[in-house]
Amino acid sequence: MLTVQNVSFAYDTVPVLKDISFTIEKGQHIALIGASGCGKSTLLKIIYGLLDVDQGTLFWDDQKILGPAYNLVPGQENMKYLSQGFELQSYRTVAENIGQFLSNFEPELKAGRVNELLEIVEMIPFADTKVENLSGGQKQRVALAKVLAKRPELLLLDEPFGNIDNFRRSSLRRNLFAYLKRNKITSITATHDKTDILSFAEETIVIHKGEIIIKGNTHTIYKNPENYYIASLFGEVNELPISNFLSDGDSDKTVLLYPHELQIDAHANLKATVKKSYFNGNHFLIEAVFNNRVIFIEHPNALQDSEEIGIHVSKEIIASRS
Ligand SMILES: Nc1ncnc2c1ncn2[C@@H]1O[C@H](COP(=O)(O)OP(=O)(O)OP(=O)(O)O)[C@@H](O)[C@H]1O
Description:
Elements: E1 2-11, E2 14-24, E3 29-33, H1 40-48, E4 55-60, E5 63-64, E6 79-82, H2 94-98, H3 107-120, H4 136-148, E7 154-158, H5 166-182, E8 186-190, H6 194-200, E9 203-208, E10 211-217, H7 218-223, H8 228-232, E11 238-241, E12 254-257, E13 263-264, E14 270-279, E15 284-290, E16 293-299, E17 308-312, H9 315-321
Parallel strand pairs: 3-8, 3-9, 6-7, 7-8
Antiparallel strand pairs: 1-2, 1-4, 4-5, 9-10, 11-12, 13-17, 14-15, 14-17, 15-16
Helix pairs in contact: 3-4
């Protein structure tokens, strides 16, 4: 189990993390989300032991996690950290990089393990290619295989799929998390991609300006976001006065609605004016103006600019959010 207790940290004098506390059970997959600069990478580095905290303590089971001031070689033995810059040796091959820290005593065992890792990251054809000749996305996949090589107990991933195209990203993500589950490897993934969060993280930690504002079940946080900041980390969101939907609604209270929760219905009483339609693949995102606010609605078709539309939201959704 990972235990983080009252951790605070500042670079020089600028506070970055404030009184962070949480625990993570073994085998869990956690998403770490928050606006750019909120302190996600810093927290991962602290957990790995790359930075000395100003206050607080961290434990992996009953082993205290110490920073570089107390550890000659920074970084915890039973963890691996995949940073946003991948630390690879560019003049060596993909297979050599992945096997760099594996024992040479049993070459066959080592080769088998390297092959298994190449398969997970779908890089078998590149085993003998020098890293310097790979694309950014391919390097990221090699870096991922390298951190898995020695079977860490805790894997800390910082935007692990950031450079990888959508086509590969989906299968890579499925392979990786299936592997982690099978091997009971705990993971914390700092990410801006909602697919990383919703499909693979059973729990999510939300950071805002260096503080944890919520930690809990991913689906619950998504379905009932406590505030606009949290909801916006999952994509576009509309914040509308609840009095628009409930005749006895408090005029100061608002309700958060994702674009797919708003429906366009010519008979609805609430009227908005279309500004623009954005093609999004299987739907259009309609930007419209409603009571002087910009709102976003998912719709199967594009609509005419300046067209008047009616907006409907199901009673169940309003009831669940109010
Ligand atoms: N080495 C450093 N020295 C001084 N300030 C730093 C250093 N590294 C990060 N910071 C600052 O600390 C804050 C948190 O940075 P951090 O990289 O942890 O954020 P993040 O949430 O991971 O951001 P992103 O999502 O953009 O990767 C930022 O304001 C950043 O500018």
